[in-house]
Every structure is written in C-alpha cells, then in structure tokens.
Amino acid sequence: MEPRNSQYVLSKLTNLLSSNENENVFRQYWMPDDITVECYDCTSKFTSFRRRHHCRVCGQVFCSKCCNSYISGKQIGYNGNLRVCTFCYGFYQNFVEQGRVPAADGTLSVAYHGNRRRSIDDVAAQLSHSPNFGKSTRKVSASVDLYGSTGVDSATLDVVKETNETVILKDPAALARLLARILEPDGGLHLETHRYYFRSYQDTFQGCKLVDWLIDQDNHTSRSQAVAIGQALLTAGFLTAVSNQPIFVDGTELYQPCDRTVIPGDTPDSETPEQDMEEPLWLREVVASPFQIEKRTSNSSSQSKMENRHRSGGNHSLKDFKPNQGLQVDICNLRENFAEHGTLDTDTLDLDTRYREHEEVYLDRVSAGYNLTPAWRSILQDLADETIRTVTPDLRKNSDDMDIRCYVKVKCVAGGNRKHSRLIPGEVCSLKLTHRKMATQLDKPRIALVANSIVYQRDENRMMALDTLTLQEEEYIKNMTMKLLQSKPNIVLVEKTASRLAQDIFLREGVSLALNVKFRVLERLERLTGGKIITSIDSMMTAPVMGTCQSFYVENPPEEQERRSLLVFDGCSPELGGTIILQGENRSILVKLKAILKRLLLLKYNWKYERSFILNEYGWISSKIKEKVEEEEDKFAISISPFIKVETRSLEGMVPEVLEGMDVLEEMEDEESVFKTSDKDLEKTMEIHPWCKGFIQEKLNQSADTPGVQNSVALFRAAGWRTGTIQKTAPTPVRAKRAIQLPDDHCENLPVLFSSFSSKSCHVYPNFCVVPWVVDMGMYGNYDISLGGFLELFCFNKDYHCPNKQCNTPILTHTRRFCHGGGSISVHMQELEAPIMGEEVDKLMMWKYCTECELITPIVPVTVDTWSLSFAMFLHIIFHENQLTRRGSDRPDAKCSHSLHQEHLTCFGKMDAVTTFKYSKLPMLKLVPPCTTPELPDIKVLQQTEMLEKMKVLKKHGSSIYSDVLETLHEIKGENADIKRLLGQQEDDFKEYRARVEKLEEQICSGTDQGIDMLQILEILTRDVIMAQQQWNKRLLSLNGSAPRKKNASSLPASVESSDPQQIKKTDNDTVKKFISTIMPHEKEDLITSPFPPGHHLIITLSGSHLDPPSPILVAETEPSSIIYYLLNTDAYQHFLADENESNQHLELQFSSDTAQFYSCSYFTKEFHLLRNEIFPGRGAEFLASLSTCRRWEAMGGKSGLLFFKTRDDRFILKQMSRFEFQSFTEFAPHYFKYIKQCKDSGTKTLLGKIVGVYKVGYKSVTGTGMKMDLLIIENLFYKKEVDKSYDLKGSVRNRLTVTEGKTDAVLLDENLVRGSCEAPLYINSCDKNLLVEAIKRDTAFLAIHQMMDYSLLAGICSGTGELVVGIIDYIRTFTWDKKLETLVKSVKSSGVFGGPAKTPTVINPEFYRKRFTEAMDSYFLIVPD
Hints:
By secondary structure, this protein is of the alpha+beta class. 32% of the residues lie in helices and 18% in strands.
C-alpha cells in the first residue's frame, strides 16, 4: 500500500473530485471491516462502542475521532457529503484555499492570482500536482516555465479568471527551509513549555505567535497569508497540533515542530531553487540589482494606447522602421535592392553540397581513433537520415523537448548481422517477463504502466502488529490487482516490484508482467503508446488510460550469447520517437558506434533547421571563401554548423559525450573489473565487535543477577554478535560503466552574459533591470529555447513585462544584451505605425538589413523549421559565422558583400512590432594586477652632453664662490697678514679647482669613466663646492668681524656716534630689534652666498658626530624622500641590519647641516628590508636611487587633506599617515609581512598595493621653518601606464560621485561607474574575472580578520593598450572608535529619518564592509564567457 504522503492524497482527491461515479462503486475497494482491528491513525482497538468508519478517499478504516470530517457534495455533484479522515480532509481544505475547482474535463485546476508579491522565502507558492512529481528528468529545454516571467500560459488564463489573492502551498523542501528559520536560536520563534489537559508539552508554541513572527519577518505578509503558511506546515507534517486538529488556528492552539526528512522526490523540479531548472535564466523573475537602487520620485509619462491603423497594400509600411536607435534611416527611401542571383533550388543545392562535405569531415574528426569502417559509416548515415525524416518533435508544444535524442533511443545488441540494424517506431528494453508461461507475442496489446510497486506497505513511520499485517495484506493485494484488471490490460509494466500474490493473479488472468522497469522507460512508453502512468493503483477512482501499439513480442537471444531478452513494443506513431537497434559487433564496438550515431543525429537535426534559416535570410557562401576554409579546416575546432569556424585552442581536450541524459554510460561486462578479497580483508571481516569481545573475555565471578553482568549481557545482545567493521560480501562480477569520449564540439554549449536595461526606466536606470549573469546554454538542451519561441514569448508578447518589479516601462524600450567571445548581440524593439505587410497578418516575418549599404533582403515569412532553430545556435551563428554573404554578392554589379551576420542586422517582425539583433565588438580589457616583483627603473646614466652641461653648471658655481671670496677680501679695509694669507689661499684653491674641473671635462669629452662612476664623481665635486663655500664663510667671519656684511644696513660699525636726534631714535629702535632677535629665531647671514637652490643641505653632523668628509648626498627640505634616502645610505643603517642582537624594531637617526637639523625614524627596519629583498631581488640600489628625489603630488579624489609625494621616476608614492593610521599599522604590520611572503612563496595573486616602508621624518631650520610627518611608501600601480580614466571604488554609492565638468584627470568614484555601467560596462574575460574575484575574496578576508576597512580598489583604464590596472589601496585603517562614531552618525543621517532616501554609510563594520566590497567589485567588472 502506498504511504499517505502529499502525492498520494493529491492523486486521490484529484481522481475523486473528477469522478462521476456513485459512492457505492468505491466500496468494493475498501479495507474489509472483519480484518481491521485498530484505527489506522491512533491505533485504538475497535470495540462495540468504538466503531469503524471508512475514509472515502484512502479507503482505510478509522475511529470516529480520526474520521469526523466531511467533504461538501456540491463540489462533486452529490446531494450529500463524503466522510473522510483528518489527514485527507486537511489536503482538501488546501485545495479549496488554493482555488482548485473541478474543471470542464473533470480535473482540478488552479486559479491564477496575478503577480502577487511573494514573501517569507516564497513559502506561498504553488504545489506541483504533476503525475511525475518527484521524478528526475533528463533535462529541460523549450519550456515556457523555464523562460517565462509572465507566470501563466494562455490556456490557464482562459480557464480560470479569479482575482482574489490566494496563498498557495510551497513544496516540502521550501517548507523545510522555513521551519529551519523558525527554529533558529537567534531570530527564530521562541519555544516554550505549555500545559494542555493536565500534561506538559515541551518545545511548543501558540499559533498566534507563529503568525506574528511571520508578519515580523516581512511586513508585506498579511495575517491570512501567515495563517495559510502555518496550515501548509501543519498539512505537510512539519508541525503537529497538540489537540490533533488538522486546521491551523490563529489563537492559543498549541503546535509542536516535527522532524521530517524531505526526500528528493518530495520536491518538484520546477520549484526547487537549488536546481538549475528553477531559474528562468536571463529572464528570471526575481531580479537582484548589483547596485543600490535609489528611490526617485518623478512624473512617469503615461503610455499612449496603441491605435489600429489600416493601410492598403504597398511595401511602404516599413518607413518608420529604425534598425538601430542611433540610425535614422527611412526604409522607404533606401536604394533598390539588387536582383537575386540564382534560384532557390540552386542555392539549396549549394548549401546541401556544402553540408555533405562538412558531414564527411566531421565524421572523420569525431571518429578518429575508433576505426569507423565505410560499411558502418554508411549504415549510421542511413539510420540518421531515416530518423530525422521520421521523428518530428513538435516544438510549438511546450511538452516536447527540443533535442531529438530525447525521443530516439539507441540500443546496442551484441552479435547478429550489421545489416539488421534498423529503426523501430516504438520502444525496446532489456527486460524479461516474470514467468515463462506468460504471453510473449501480442497484437495491439493493452499496456498498463504502473509507477512504484504493487505491494502492501503501511505508513513507514508507524509500527503495527504482525497479526494485523497478515490479515490485511492478502485482501489488499486482491483489491488492487482486481481494480487494475478491470481495465483488461494484456501487459503490465511495474517500476519496482510486485508481491508474489500479485504475480500469481496476473499469471492466472493471462496478463504478461515485467518488473523493475526504469521510470524513464515508462515515460517513453507513455509518450509512444498514449497510455498514462498510474502513480498508485490504490488511488485509482476511474479507469486508467491504457497504452497500445501495433505489436508486442519478446526477442530472446541465441543460446551462445549471454545477454538478456528484449521486450519490443513495435508499431507506435513514428513521429513521436523510436528505437535504433545496432547489432553485428561485440558490445565494446557497438558502444562506440552508439556515441558516434548520437552525435550524427544532432548534426543532421541541427542542419535541418539551420539550412531553413540561411535560406530565409538569403545567405550563401562564395566558392573562393569555401576553398580557403577547406584548406584551413584542421585549424578550426569541431563544429556542428558547417559555417562556424573558430580556431582550435591549445588546451582543447576530450570530454565525455552526453548520450541520453542520465544514461551516459553504457554497461558492459568486464572481466578485469571483478575484484578479489584479500586474506587480510577476510580476517578483518571476522573482527569481533568490542561489546561482544568484552563479554566473551570477561571472567564471571559474580552472580548472573548482578547489575554489572546484566549490563554486559545487554550489550552483547545489542551487538548481535556483529563484527566491528562492515561485513564484506563475496566478490561478484560487476558491470563496468565506461564513458565513450568524443572530441568536444564547439557549438554544444554557449555561455553568454545576459543583461537587460532601459534608459527610460526612471526607477531603475542607471542600474540594470536584469543583473548581468552568465547563462550556460546547451544547444537543444539545458536553458535553450527555439528561436520562434523566444520571439513570440519575450519579444512580441504584449503580456510580457520587465522581470524587475520596480521597472514600469514597456519591454519595447528595453535593450537586452548577450555577450560572448569578445562580441555582443543587442536586442532592440520598435513599434511601427502600421503592420509590416500592409495588413494585420499575424505572421512572423524576417529580413536582413545592411547598415553600411542601407539595403534589405526580401521580407519573407519565418518557416516552421526556422521557427524551431535552437536559439543558442542562432546566437552562435551571429557570434562566430563570418563566411556567408547575401545572395548574389559575387556578381560584378553586386552592391553589398558585407558579412551577413556580423555586419547586417537580423530583423524579425510581427504585426506592427520589429525586433532587431545587432552584433558589435566589445572593448575587452586585460586585467593587470600588482606584480609580485614590481619593476624598478634602472639607475639613470647621464649622457655626455648632459654631463658636460652639469659640469658647466658646477664650474660656474665654483667660480662664483671664489670670485665672491676675492671681492670680499678686497673690500675689507686695512692690510694685515691674515688678509694676505687668505688672498694667497684663495688663489691656490681656485687654481686647484680649475685644474680639477678641466681634468673632468677632458675625461667626459674623451668618453672614459662614463656612467655611474662619473655621476658619483660629479656628486663629490658638488659636495666639495658646497664645503668650500661653508669653509670660506667661516674664514671670513673669523676676521674679528672686520668683514663687511652685504646688503644689510645694520652691519655698520657700532662705534659710530651721532648727535642727530633722528639717529638717536634710530639707535633705540635698533636696540628693540636686537632684543626681539634674542628671543626669536633668526637667519644666519653668510658673506658668501650659496649658488645652489635654497633648501638643499649638506649633512655634516650625524648623531652628534662630525662627519669628515661628509656624505655627498644632499637633503632637500621640500623632498621628504631625500631624508629617507640619506638614512638608508648611512653606515648606522647597515650596522643596525647586521646586528642580530638588536631588540628594537625601529631605527632613529638625527643629523644636521650648518643651517638645519633633521630627524628620521625607520619603523620595522629589518622586516621591511627583508620584504624589499623578496620583491626587489638584487635591486636594492635601484630602490634607493628611486627615493633620492621626489615632488609634491596633488592626488585627486582624496578627502583626508593629507599630503602626497611621488618620486620623480613615478615608481613610488609617499603618503602622509594620520595618527590613527599610524597606530593601526604598528599593530597590523607583522600580519602584513607574513601575508605578503606567503602569497609570494605560494605564487598566489594579491591585489594589495605593496607598502615597502614606513618612516617618520622631520626637520627644523635656523629660519624657523620645519616639518614633521609619518610617511608610508607604496608602489605606484600606474607606473609606466597611460591611464585615461581612473576609479576609486569602495562598493558604496553614498556620496561617491565626482563632478567631472572642467576636469580632465579627475578620479571617478563608484556612482560614476554605476551611471555608465549600462551603456559602457567594463568587460574582462573569464580568466581575468576568476583571478580578480578570488584575489579580492582572499585579500578582503585577510583584512577583515584584522579589523581593516575603508580600503579602496584603484582601477585605471588604458584605452591605448586595452588594459585594466587594479590594486587595493588605503588598507591600513582599522574600525576604531572614531570610525564607529562616524558610522553611527551617518547611519542616523542616512536612515531617512530626516528626509531623503536611505543609504548605507560608506564606513561600516569590517565584515560587512568586506561583503559589500566583494559583491560590488564582482558586479562592477563583467565577465564575457568564451
């Protein structure tokens, strides 16, 4: 007996409500009273006072408490009511709530309730009532439910027109997920202990509490909907009522959750969100925008209604047709199209000839390595041709699959003669009848198809007495078999098994019986014979539909062959399908032939439709192009289409050939597959269970009645003398499953990136209406649809609307885009003033339009074969076909020879609507992440002219210094020995300097000592010139103040006296000035001014020690990198690195010049040194040279107000760090070093811009100026890149918009990217997208662990090279108290409390920031499958 699950009761109610028979007819199949001793539900024993009651649905016997509900007779045409059990009545109530009513044909229909908003995990959804509920199918193809977002087909709308909202039951899997949410400890429903009739029930809740919880989860859920959801949980067995009432009550009624396992069969394929079939692909109903959609208020323009305009005759009805939005062309004014070259028959012959050549080449490449003989090649081709002519699936019916291989089975029969291979219009299966006396040959048999089993089976979750089972089983089997035999079947096929009693009854009645029939065989027979699968004999209230065929016979194998017999059902409708018998070889060869035949069927089947499509669009291929392609055939990948040529990839491999859905592998006997059990395994199987072993080895010194002995005995009995491991059975021969591998066909799968948007959608734009996502379309298979089906359902269907619920614009204004292999196909729609053909003819028309020549092909109706072409193949042709041109393009007077698909628009029209498909190349970007070992510029070597110029400048500076010295000495009054001595010394120094300079000039001019050595010599010369200026200043000042001070009025002798009152007043003022100068810093006045730029210092003191000689490195006040450069070149730095006992991580140095003091601190000195050695191996000198000089850099886009510097070679950027950032980095640094090293050692890509040093620098000059800042040095991601447009992306659109008016180099932000994402998205290939996504996930997870947030992805677009340079920057900011306060303030401000739309703050918790950042980056950069 079938268990009373949802499928069982659903089938029973359907049959009962659709039956017109009297109730008394069903009595003969009730369970007899005399063999029923207890209630089926509560197991209460029947007595004289507890009477028996039969349920009119399931036929079981219950007590009055469990069978006290009634079904209204008005629903089924009875005067009275039908008494049913509690369980069946609950399902009947659900039928009433769902709007299921008896239709005209006696079946139950479901009322359509429009596009009601769904909530609470879509629990209010339709419960499938298909007879194949729970059965796995091969695959889904051309189906309205797969693509349709309109919700219901026209047939359903015609039958039911109810408008009231109704909550519909969800499948058990969805209810199980909802129950899990209800029972969550956090956020779920609180379970309590309640008392009911003096008993305490733990983990219970009141019905009203569940209703309130459901409403809290979704404000759009009404109370009646929540009650219906509770009823669904109760009916499906996920809840139980303490009072055992079947109705869910919104009150104090107590309910308790139940543990129920949802088996795969309980979930309908079309409703399960985990399965690929549920998603409506690129047109799915539920659309989640990757960007935050802001609510906008605007006056939506009302759509004017369509007016029917009738025009008489003429071809000028296309005058308003604009094939492209940017193309303003009047079709009526186009040039006259040229005369067509050749006739249709000639073009057809040319195409057929091209196909036959392609078929031969295709078979050679597919069968390479399988030794396909010419005889078998001819047989396979003949069988395939006959099959294509005979089997014709009707794709206009949603029930038919697109792939012909679903309806053509290939059966391998070992032995025999190859000439006997044939196509049978019917089904052939390897089965045998249960008894040899059963009929093996019948003409026009009546065939019964039974799913499940014919056995007695009680509810699997209920225990019952053995005597009750013995009493009821025989009676039940008799009732079930007699109910089936009333339909007078000749053959009964059962999916699983049948009891011995049932087999004997069928044998006695002369019925042939076969067991263990695969369900897909039953499905094929249901289609071929016209019968209906009986899901449960017990639920049959009316006579089942029997199938039939012309003949049935059993084909037994010869005695010398070891194979099973074949059941042949011959003479079915040939257009519905058939079975191809392959024989004449051994099984291993036949399996290979089967795989080749399957591929050949697809090849011929596709050509049937592709040929019609090419003829409709007036396409042809010239002989020159055909010869060129034939010469290069081996360069291209294998393709089903003769016109799609794609070069073979180097990594193209072999993949298993998909044969028959789940039946991919062919079973073959393999002697080598028989395994043998080793002796050790046999010993292991005899291992004693620990409980048994303990009892056997235990010494019994106590009485058997003691608790210890009793416990040991109980454990021994519980173990049942079982071994500790799983008992291994003796080895038996197994049927090895082998996959036949054929070369991969390029056209079998087409992954495309689909998106949809409308620039006129005020509520959605600039976001996508349908978020770009990748659809892997299988040709005539998964996620595919016919070309005509796509056009009629999603283009010319006025009931079809945009899947995005927020979009209120018609589908005519939308642009749908398919991207693949570096190209895109845009689908545009347009409405004309009048029908295309001048009259309202409801026909699908097509033509081609050349945008260059402005010529169109003749407008022709779409044929049936063109309508049935795979939409995936249609896209394939436009993406990859570039050989075909329009007919007559090789004529001398031809006006157009452009590619028929990539340079023409493919246009379809119906009535006054036009749909165009336009191909265009995509601007693909190549991802450039940060390099593991960044490039460093070579140390600049001056050319000869540059050295001479530098030498000339130094010569001039030195000469000016010595000239000033000589002038100063002559201005000093008086003659003494010191002045004479200084004059002589000046003359000697100047001569020595001139000789040194002249010698260097000779070396430069001679070309010797070029390069870095000469550059160092010039630096030393510069140092000596500066030192000479400083030394002469000291000598002149040492002349007891006798030297005059230039250009300073206060330098007059103090001994000068004057009696002039004005002079006295001036002297007083000078006294005040001197007093102020004693407390204020003042500038040191030099007699000999420096000829070098101000702010450049020569360091003469290091850590209090005078340097002799000082380093030639000059430090500039305005260039912080020069301070760091000097630090890294000191001996103290090298000693610090070499000292292994140094415990301090940081190195501090103070140094000074004659006019300024400098401070520099290197943080994590050794760690950064090791890091630089890792990423700049052997390039330490180049790194130092890059830091020698820098310039101020105004970074665009930053809001922090911190300073930025860039080295003059553009290799590194110095960024000032705030106090919080510096504190964060000191804690984060050890983890950063470890992470970067792990990434480099493992070869893992990271997008983190590499920080190569952190320093504190400062200075103070005698003039009072100074500076102090913390700096980090990070690589410049745009080094040597000509970036045209750059973005700073954080994953949020709140205040993330840059006004670009009047700015050419502005850094754009997130909202700038979002606003242009529809019209000009950023496309990258699949490899780069995977690398980007994985690197971002890995890096952001690392940053989130250490509480880092507010980082950005810097992206630069190089239009010239087509590169996308990316890297993560600003990642050293932790979520400290100031950021938490900022988040709180912005959250309140942006919550909408003070008006305006609600937006998430930019700065949020690190984990939330990571999720938002990752999702946003994934949506910003779109993948183009290839």
